[in-house]
Amino acid sequence: MESSNSVEFGVEHQMVRDSARDYLAAHSDSAAVRRVTEAGPAHDHALWQAIAGELGWCGIALPEAVGGAGLGAPGLVLLQEQLGQRLACVPFWSTACVAAPWLQGSVGHSGPWLERLAAGECHAAAVLPDDGGWHYDGVRIAAQVNANGFVLHGSAAQVADAAGADWLLVPARLDDGEPALFLLEPAALAQDARFALAPLDTLDRTRPLASLRLDGLAVPASACLARGDAAVQGLAQAWWHGKLMLAAEQLGAAQQCLDLTVGYAAERIQFGRAIGSFQAVKHRCAQMMVVVEAARSAVYGAAQAWEAAVVAEARLEICAAAVAADDALRFCAQEAIQLHGGVGFTWEYDPQLYFKRAQAAGQWLGGAGVALAYIADNGPQAWRTA
């Protein structure tokens, strides 16, 4: 159950959306998601190899000069929406939506890294500040300079998609407080006792999290990709871009809650009639559609604003989209459970999967609270005094 939207996309964007919808419906349906997560938080490695390597989804937003498709944020938003709708168990958000823009924003000659990401050769994870913000104030990792490079100390409570990552982007502060960005290769550090990634068993098993500990880890000077303003700008770009793409993912999940509910209401018979024929059920489904469409307009508009590269406007649009998408997913997940009746919360039915995603995603990157605070501090005067 999906309507058109006033925001215009090109033919290429529509083709990306339609092909992603069909592919994920076939390869990341409910049964596939359950198979992957039965033993705990995990990735669908076969699906990741297909979408990153064969289909080239990681390069959708990247410039053609590095092997990407050049479709920018609008193209990536459409992919994220479809991935969220299917709760695809792949590290796409961390790789294409956070790590890639971080490298673009921090590293002057990021081409070699971006080429490998566009080709689907690497799965990247990023250590974001524990306070949920985009400033280095929330960075808890320190880097000491020595004769051979650097020594890293510190920890991160939760790192999305860190398990199995080829690259780990780690922000740190140097001895004098200067911000820096490091790139670590977990596979090469697996036997080093000073480096530890510990998988976490979480509520939402479709997105694995891990804790990171760096206890005097020595790294060469080449591991430091950026320092100073470049590191600061890269973190901010990664955070805001990730916030936008997280909203797109939440939008897709909310749409699936609506679709599942409408489908169930058409099949569930009560008092000799499908429950979807009752006015009270129709009204509740209609309200779900209203909040989904409002979120879709906000997310698509934010993607266009990001592409226009007007930072102040884009950030406000992203905050509005984040709040709308978070509200939509929470509301639709709750309504899906209620309108499925007595079976809505059971393991055999899918609404519980989306309810868990709603609860987890609502805490990432500071949740709606950070977005509302930013709007309150930076929105137009009329908003702040209303």
Automatic annotation (TrEMBL):
<dbReference type="InterPro" id="IPR009100">
    <property type="entry name" value="AcylCoA_DH/oxidase_NM_dom_sf"/>
</dbReference>
<feature type="domain" description="Acyl-CoA dehydrogenase/oxidase N-terminal">
    <location>
        <begin position="12"/>
        <end position="121"/>
    </location>
</feature>
<dbReference type="Pfam" id="PF00441">
    <property type="entry name" value="Acyl-CoA_dh_1"/>
</dbReference>
<dbReference type="GO" id="GO:0050660">
    <property type="term" value="F:flavin adenine dinucleotide binding"/>
</dbReference>
<dbReference type="InterPro" id="IPR037069">
    <property type="entry name" value="AcylCoA_DH/ox_N_sf"/>
</dbReference>
<dbReference type="InterPro" id="IPR036250">
    <property type="entry name" value="AcylCo_DH-like_C"/>
</dbReference>
<feature type="domain" description="Acyl-CoA dehydrogenase/oxidase C-terminal">
    <location>
        <begin position="241"/>
        <end position="377"/>
    </location>
</feature>
<dbReference type="InterPro" id="IPR046373">
    <property type="entry name" value="Acyl-CoA_Oxase/DH_mid-dom_sf"/>
</dbReference>
<keyword id="KW-0560">Oxidoreductase</keyword>
<dbReference type="InterPro" id="IPR013786">
    <property type="entry name" value="AcylCoA_DH/ox_N"/>
</dbReference>
<dbReference type="Pfam" id="PF02771">
    <property type="entry name" value="Acyl-CoA_dh_N"/>
</dbReference>
<keyword id="KW-0285">Flavoprotein</keyword>
<dbReference type="GO" id="GO:0003995">
    <property type="term" value="F:acyl-CoA dehydrogenase activity"/>
</dbReference>
<keyword id="KW-0274">FAD</keyword>
<dbReference type="InterPro" id="IPR009075">
    <property type="entry name" value="AcylCo_DH/oxidase_C"/>
</dbReference>
<comment type="similarity">
    <text>Belongs to the acyl-CoA dehydrogenase family.</text>
</comment>
<protein>
    <submittedName>
        <fullName>Acyl-CoA dehydrogenase</fullName>
        <ecNumber>1.3.99.-</ecNumber>
    </submittedName>
</protein>
